[in-house]
Amino acid sequence: MTKSKEQIEQLLATILQESSEEDEEVLLHLLHGLRDKQQGIHRRYINATLHMVGKFEPEASEVRIPITPVIHNTIKVPHGGIIATIADAAMGGLASRAVPEGYNVVTTNMNVTYMATTKNKELIARGRFVHKGRQTLVMACDIEDETGRQLAIATGSFFVIQRRL
Q1: Which of 22, 63, 68, 153 is most buried, by the most CB atoms less than 10 A from its CB?
Q2: pLDDT for residue 90
């Protein structure tokens, strides 16, 4: 066994000895995400950690994540940075699918206006195009919970780059 694996086992044992129910829920969430990444369900750790799922049509996208303690801020509601993250994923994922093969996009600007918060079960970000240029794409996104309550709106600009290996 490698030294890293020994450290992980020791740390997990200590965490489990001292854990609350919420700690165990969070640990299970994170471990399931890591397992999904290993099995190829997610390509990136951030998507796996958040249990992010996306649906992308030619002109619109939808990204969902469950609301769990993993994404809570100090008042136990979804952290604003997580809301910005799923908005960026919905807009950037849609934008990246609209550029020619061999190219991708990077976010150059994003603005989020927060209007409400939620203690419900799911965050949903729906992205759409505002402008499709050769070098720049401008996007908009609505973020709501599963009841349809609007939590935030976002806009973003994305610059087209050559895909890096």
Answers
A1: 63
A2: 98
- In terms of Cα–Cα distance, which of 117, 125, 20 is closest to 73? 117
Per-residue pLDDT tens digits for 94-117? 999 999 999 999 999 999 999 999
| Same domain flag for 67 and 132 | yes
Q: Which residue has the tokens 């309550």?
A: 149
Same domain, 77 and 123: yes
List the domain range (segments joined by +) for residue 115. Answer: 52-165
Q: What is the pLDDT of residue 132?
A: 97
Q: How many angstroms separate the CA atoms of 98 and 128, rounded?
A: 11
The helix/strand count (H/E) of the chain reads as 4, 6
Torsion angles phi and psi, residue 56, rounded to 5? -125, 120
Residues 130, 132, 138, 140, Cα dihedral to 10° = 40
d(CA 89, CA 96): 10
Could you say which residues of the chain have pLDDT below 70?
none
